[in-house]
Every structure is written in structure tokens, then in C-alpha cells.
Automatic annotation (TrEMBL):
Belongs to the transcriptional regulatory Rex family. Residues 81-183 form the CoA-binding domain. Keywords: Cytoplasm, DNA-binding, NAD, Repressor, Transcription, Transcription regulation. This is Redox-sensing transcriptional repressor Rex. It is found in: Cytoplasm. Homodimer. Modulates transcription in response to changes in cellular NADH/NAD(+) redox state. Binds to the promoter of the aldehyde-alcohol dehydrogenase adhE gene. Functions as a redox-dependent repressor of adhE expression. Pfam families: CoA_binding, Put_DNA-bind_N. GO terms for biological process: negative regulation of DNA-templated transcription; response to redox state. NAD(+) binds at G92, V93, G94, N95, M96, G97. The gene is rex. One of its GO terms (molecular function) is DNA-binding transcription factor activity. One of its GO terms (cellular component) is cytoplasm. Its main location: cytoplasm.
Amino acid sequence: MKNEKSSIPRATAKRLSLYYRIFKRFNAENIEKASSKEIAEAIGIDAATVRRDFSYFGELGRRGFGYDVKKLMEFFADILNDNSITNVMLVGVGNMGRALLHYRFHERNKMKIVMAFEADENPAVGTVDAGIPIYAISEIEEKIKEAKSQTAILTVPSNKAQEVANILVAAGVKGILSFSPVNLSVPKDVVVQYVDLTSELQTLLYFMRKD
């Protein structure tokens, strides 16, 4: 199997976690083989898309024989780095931030929020929420070494997002999941993924009204 991440289309990359989840479910149900049609139906796409996605990784299965569920589950766990714990930092402990602090990532996968940060003057600094310590943003360069993390979730107001992103990059963060609806300017070696709940809801409502 080859693993050429740089050549994988973004749309395919966004489906990798879906494939992993489906193969984990199939494995839990003691299903040993799954066809591209069965995988597609479980995700809600067409079989041709599944086969095209899988083709970027070489021979994952043989036509007419189906895909080995356990083998593919382990394959996607490997490329998604779900075989080891990934420490994640949270920046911004407002309503969204606190909801994420209480979301038990580690029970569903091997990602774990290990610490959170807020503005130095915020009263939350120095407290612990859901077992996770909250530090001042000015301490991030020191604390990031303790956390052994290069990944951060950003849930700060839009007008502060770029400023905080600059602090994260300077501290050594290489991956940012941003809930702030603004495009961040970061170096080429830093990956940013955006989550815009308002946009997703508007898209949902559009398709609901389309019919």
C-alpha cells in the first residue's frame, strides 16, 4: 500500500475519517468483508467515489472480493495517526470552548485535549475545567513543550483569531482547527482546518427548502 498524502485531493482527505469510522463499525459487527457498494451506502456516497478514493492508496482490495474490514480499519487508523495519543490544546474557553472541554474525544478516538488557554486577564486562568487546566496565553510557549503538542483548537472571537494564530505559530503549533469564521494567514508548513457552524446550518436550510 502506498501513502502519498500530498497527492490526495482535499475532498478525499476529508472522507478518510468517515471510512475509518465505518470500518470500525463493521469490525465491531463482526463483518469481515465489505464491498464498495456497502461502504458507499454506509457513508452516503456512490461506490465509484469509494473506489476512486481508495485508488490513491494503491491496492486496498481486489475487485469482486470486497475489502478486508480489519485490514482497512488498521490501515486508516495508521494514516490518521489513531494508533497513538495525540495531545491537543484548546485556545478560547468561551461557550464553545467549554463545550469542547467537556466533549470526551478520547472515548471516541485517540485525541485528547490536555490543556486550555485564555487571555491573561480572564478569570478562568488558573482554574481547572473537566480535569483540564486553563493557562494564560502568555504561557503557551512554555506549556506547549510540556504538552508535547503541535495541534490547537481555536475558539476565539473573529477579531482576535489572527492575533492568536500568530502566537500559536510562534510557539510551534503546526495544525489549527479554527471555529472562527475568518481566513487565517499562516506559514505554508502550518495546516488550518475551518469549522463554520453558521455556514453549515445555512447550507442545510438551503437544501431543506430546495425541494
